[in-house]
């Protein structure tokens, strides 16, 4: 009997040991859990890290090493402090002039009283706030410096979907960090700017953007500034492949206005607008589902004086296609009141052009609620 019990014990032990040995060698890979929570819009400075390793399928045909050295020297870290000395936010900034002008996001500086700038060589300076524009989420700072190495502006209208870009910033208060990706889309409106007359026509990229990158540089392969990194879309709150930058042509105009006038000089056409739909293509004999539909024209506006009517479809401003509302808003926002533009539009199946259309400002008659 004793021998029988011993044999049973050995058998049980062997079975248990074999089970755990099998499980140790052949444990199944856990299934990835799905999330059904809606996507959240998160400013890049606010999101926690949640990014798996990325592997390029092929190496990009670009000298990213040289470009990175050039760009990191022109990107700074910004600590925004309250009047009592507490840090209220942190972000990045881009040097745009040798005499100390820096670009960043409005949301990086809006709650601050003091702005501490850390350069790529670790030296620090205090900046003064020149002005901000909540409608584009841009701000201009100035440090008492000379002989800085600024970035040059690129032409964001020439940016193409699929081209390589670098995002440079200071995530988590680290020194300048460079990530690479491609342009995924243009003229994205993600409804994060709540100001009246806000302009959202973002460049969308898959370059990694994390906390502290807000206000940093998006550059092309030549190291030219083509955007200011602003936001991400995320279900989890971490980076998931969708980051957004303000296009450089709009940045240049807004910053020039702030530098010269202290505020943005916003011009408008004086029209209500909407994207073209399938039904409009048939109704207006359009060649494609693109363009911007005029829903109304304000009396005395620039559009009225140019002879535009309700039902017209605007297809370009100064030769640049306006396939959607964000694209039209961006193009008009590049001009100041009193400046002239040309535009093309469809009316009853025919194509028309108007030159020397004089734009009016927001503070002029017939501007309320219009674009």
Q: What key phrases describe this protein's structure?
A:
371 residues; alpha+beta; Thrombin, subunit H; Pdz3 Domain; 3 domains; six-stranded antiparallel beta barrel; six-stranded antiparallel β-barrel; 7 helices; globular
CATH topology of the largest domain, anyone?
Answer: Thrombin, subunit H
Main sheet characteristics: 6 strands, antiparallel, barrel
Number of domains: 3
The CATH superfamily name of the largest domain is Trypsin-like serine proteases
Individual helix count: 7
Global shape: globular
Strand order of the largest sheet: 8-9-10-13-12-11
Assembly state (oligomeric): single chain
Q: In sequence order, what are the helices and strands, one letter per element? A: HEHEEEHEEEEEEEEEHEEHEHEEHEEE
Walkthrough of the structure:
This protein has 371 residues and is α+β, with helices and mostly antiparallel strands. The protein folds into 3 domains: 123 residues, Beta Barrel (Thrombin, subunit H); 72 residues, Thrombin, subunit H (Beta Barrel), CATH 2.40.10; 95 residues, PDZ domain (Pdz3 Domain, Roll). 19% of the residues lie in helices and 33% in strands. The chain contains 7 helices and 21 strands. The strands form 4 sheets. It has a 6-stranded antiparallel β-barrel. Strands 2-3-4-7-6-5 form a 6-stranded antiparallel beta barrel. Strand 12 and strand 13 form a beta hairpin. The longest helix is centred in the first third of the chain and has 24 residues.
